[in-house]
Design a protein that fits this description.
Oligomer: single chain
Strand content: under 5%
GO molecular function: very-long-chain (3R)-3-hydroxyacyl-CoA dehydratase activity
EC number: 4.2.1.134
Number of helices: 8
Structural class: mainly alpha
Largest sheet: none
Mean pLDDT: 91
Radius of gyration: 22 Å
Membrane topology: Multi-pass membrane protein
Order of helices and strands: HHHHHHHH
Main location: endoplasmic reticulum
Keywords: Endoplasmic reticulum, Fatty acid biosynthesis, Fatty acid metabolism, Lipid biosynthesis, Lipid metabolism, Lyase, Membrane, Transmembrane, Transmembrane helix
Length: about 240
């Protein structure tokens, strides 16, 4: 009898611990998504105000870069969320998306100031802003169990147009950066050197551009499958690799 009671007590404690951890995880994720929604809303307002005041996109990136870099880098926490099992998203899929964004912000537009006024930069900034406001507000309301249908609809429909446009903006921006990278030799390591290693950032960017070819269709069609599942209730059977 004592043994049974002890086992029951231990099980109750374990269940209480799990509920506590679940509550804390939900609270943190709710805070995180509210903060990210607010951050991207601030960016959207700043971008709109700049354009209304200046009548041009030139100088826009410079005016918002600190806020952009902060919130886009803050998104690295999403990898931690996946790794800890707080969300059921694939670590690999999340890693590709987050790392590509950070690469665009820090190693392209931030590093090569000559391209910051390119129209392609404006394109991906607008797309990112619309996408992230929709995405983070969707997660927030979903966690609060009060998800308006229009946000759900926007989450699984806007990407059909926005995703290809955003990818085009990113590729055009990298392409615009190539001449400056080649002339300056930035981030490149030439032989001979004490490490006996050669690295050319110009060719690295060409390889990065090529990776969009296999990755874009995979991520895009994954979202289309999710759209059918969420909006139309289709049962999607993923094939084993």
């Amino acid at each position: 009898m004592a043994s049974s009671e002890e086992e029951g007590s231990a099980e109750d404690k374990e269940n209480t611990k799990k509920r506590t951890l679940s509550t804390l995880a939900t609270a943190w994720l709710t805070f995180y998504n509210i903060a990210m929604t607010a951050g991207w809303l601030v960016l959207a307002i700043a971008m709109a105000r700049f354009y209304l005041e200046k009548g041009t996109h030139k100088g826009l990136y410079k005016s918002i870069q600190k806020t952009l870099k902060f919130f886009q880098t803050f998104a690295l926490l999403e990898l931690v969320h996946c790794a800890l099992g707080l969300v059921r998203t694939s670590v690999l899929a999340t890693g590709v998306q987050v790392s590509s964004r950070i690469f665009m912000v820090w190693l392209i537009t931030n590093s090569i100031r000559q391209i910051q006024n390119e129209e392609s930069v404006l394109i991906f900034l607008v797309v990112w802003t619309m996408t992230e406001i929709t995405r983070y507000s969707y997660y927030t309301f979903n966690l609060l169990n009060h998800l308006p249908y229009f946000i759900k609809w926007a989450r699984y429909n806007l990407f059909i147009v926005l995703y290809p446009i955003g990818v085009a903006g990113e590729l055009l921006t990298i392409y615009a950066a190539l001449p400056y990278v080649r002339r300056s030799g930035m981030y490149s390591l030439r032989l001979p050197n004490k490490y006996n290693v050669s690295f050319d950032y110009y060719y690295c960017l060409l390889i990065v551009m090529c990776t969009y070819i296999p990755l874009f269709p995979q991520l895009y069609f994954h979202m289309l499958r999710q759209r059918r599942k969420v909006l139309h209730g289709e049962v999607i059977v993923e094939k084993d690799e």
